Amino acid sequence: MKYFKKVLALVLTLAFVISLVPGVYGEENDTTTDHVHDYIAQVIKEASHTENGLLRYTCLCNDFYEEETEALGHNYVADVAKEASCTENGVIIYSCSCGKSYEEKIEAQGHNYVIIEHTEPTQEVDGITVYACSVCSNEYTETKEHEDKYVAKMYICAKRGVSPLGHMWVYIENISNQPIEVGVYTVPIGQGVSIGAFGLTRADGIGIYYNVEAYTANKYGLKNVVCMQENLTKSDLEKVSQKVRNNNFWDPIILNCMGIAFSIWNSGASTKLISLVFPVFGRLQMLMHPHIDEINMYYPTESQVYKQKGIGQDARLENVSENTLSHGF
Ligand SMILES: [Zn+2]
Ligand SMILES: [Zn+2]
Ligand SMILES: [Zn+2]
């Protein structure tokens, strides 16, 4: 007990002494008597681009609390890996320093065509419109046909000479892009056909022959001619073709080739010619019109030389005998 009393007295004395020190009581009493945490931050986990980080605040007293730090997020840098062309998509690659990346396509915009050339169609030449892309220079051409385009060139030719006779014939050249019909003969693309009437000089009989002149002129030569030329539209050619089908004759009145040749020519040409008994008068008419002095006819094969048999619906082709082709005209 004695000891207890001593301690009590000491404590009381201390309390009394402390109470005498100004400012010890009151609010300042907590700072000295209660512990004030003093936290020191420590990184437990660094924040990455995608994951939050963690900070721990610890006091010397071991009290601590934790706080998350926000993920940093990616920092993408764009790189054009492939430029878009007019027709192919391009690619942009976005990549982050962490290795994460994604792609985005650059939409192809299609060609941007502008007209760089344009011509209107004529009866002789198709019109064209050339389109070119202002970006990549890709080009394409549209063609437009004249509604009354020429499909053939028609010639009428006469041999010149001292004789009042002399052969006359029509030559029709296909200038279209498809085969054309002349009488009962089909003229392939790029070829022509000569049409002439013969009397008894040909072994295969009187009337219309196809390609005798063209074949023999190429084989035996042809000099001293006069020709007129006109272009034929599709409807002109149909009239000429009908005339050929229906004119498988040898002129019964003037007994020469002129009447048949002139009537075929006249059925499609705008410059009309008049049969005047002798071919020489036909030739003189031709010389008064614009004319040319030579003609190059397509060289047909022997199997392309025919005699027409029948007329109109009954008209048909028959190959000629060798005898027909063994001399000129
Ligand atoms: Zn503390
Ligand atoms: Zn990242
Ligand atoms: Zn283009």
Keywords:
single chain, 329 residues, alpha+beta, 4 domains, seven-stranded antiparallel β-sheet, three-stranded antiparallel β-sheet, 6 helices, 18 strands, 21% helix, binds zinc ion
3D architecture notes:
It is a single chain. With 329 residues, this protein is of the alpha+beta class. The chain folds into four domains: 38 residues, no CATH class; 30 residues, no CATH class; 32 residues, no CATH class; 176 residues, no CATH class. The protein is 21% helix and 33% strand. The chain contains six helices and 18 strands. The strands form five sheets. Strands 16-10-11-14-15-17-18 form a seven-stranded antiparallel β-sheet, sandwiched between helices. Strand 17 and strand 18 form a beta hairpin. Helix 4 packs antiparallel against helix 5. The radius of gyration is 54 Å and the shape is rod-shaped. The relative contact order is 0.10.
For the largest sheet, list the strands in their spatial order: 16-10-11-14-15-17-18
Give the low-pLDDT segments.
10-31
Q: Gap between N and C termini, in Å?
A: 170 Å
Integer tally of domains: 4
Structural class: alpha+beta
Main sheet summary: 7 strands, antiparallel
Determine Rg (CA atoms, Å): 54 Å
Order of helices and strands: HHEEEEEEEEEEEEEEEHEHHHEE
Query: Which overall shape is indicated by the principal axes computed on the Cα atoms?
Result: rod-shaped
What's the helix count? 6
Average pLDDT over all residues: 88
Strand content: 25-35%
| Ligand names | zinc ion
Give the tally of β-strands. Answer: 18
* Fraction in helix: 10-25%
